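FAQ: What does the model actually see?

It sees only this:
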Amino acid sequence: MVPAAENQAQPGASVTSRALAILAAFENSTGSLSVARIAQKAHLPLSTTYRLVRELEEWGGLRKGSDGKYQIGFRIWELGQLAGRRLRDRAHPFLQDLFDLTHENVHMAIRDGMQALYVDKVYGSRKMPVVSRIGGRLPMHATAVGRVLLAAQPEWFIEAFLQRELEAPTSKTVTDPKLLAAIIRDVQRDGFSVTHEQMRAGMLSMALPVSYNGQVVASVGLVFDVIRYREVQRLMPLLQGTVDRIEIAMAGSPTRIQA
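And it is asked to produce this:
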C-alpha cells in the first residue's frame, strides 16, 4: 500500500511534471517496478499513476513484463541515444582504440548536475566488472572522471558541492570537505586524477579531461585492479593520446595523427 503521506501529488503539478516524475522513479532502480512502487517513488496518487503508466506504455516510454511490473521502454532508450551523440560519435573510435591498446575498462563521462553521467564505455567480458554503465550516474567526488569534471567547475560550485552530505561507497571514500578540496586543487594543478578504492574496493581509476573551445566538456578514464597501481605511469601517455585525438575530432580537424 502506498503511504498516505506520499500518495499526494504536489499542488499545481502539471501532467508533464507528473509523467516525468514517473520516469524519474526508475533512476537508480536495478529492476522492474510495480505501479504501486512507481506511485510511491513519484509521490503521486495511485489512480493518477495507473493512468499515466498506461499512456506511457502505449507511447513506448514504459514496457510491461510478464510479472505485471514495468521497465523503461525502448523508445526512451532510443531518444537517450540522441543526447551527446556528437561527442560519443567523435570519441567512441578512440575509446575503442584505447581499449584495444590497454585491454582495460574505458569510459567517458560528462557532468550532469552534481553527478558524473557516463555516456560511453568499452570493456571486455574477461575484465573485472565495474559499477559504471552507459546512462548511469555516480558521485563526482568518488570517481576519477568525476573529480576531473569537478575540478573544472568554478570555485563557488566546488564549494557548494563540498558542503553537501557526501556518500561513501567504500570505507576508503574521502568525504571530508577540507581533504577533498585539497585533492581537487591537486587535480587542477596536475591535470589528471587517480583514485584508489573510492567507488569500489579493489579498483583503481585514472582520468583526464576532454576540452572543447577552452571548456572541459567530458572526462575519459581507465579502471583496473588497484594492485596494479604501478601501471598508471605506463598507461597515462596512452590515455593522454586518446584525449588528444578526441579533442582534435571535436574541433573538426583531421583525426588521423601520428602516434
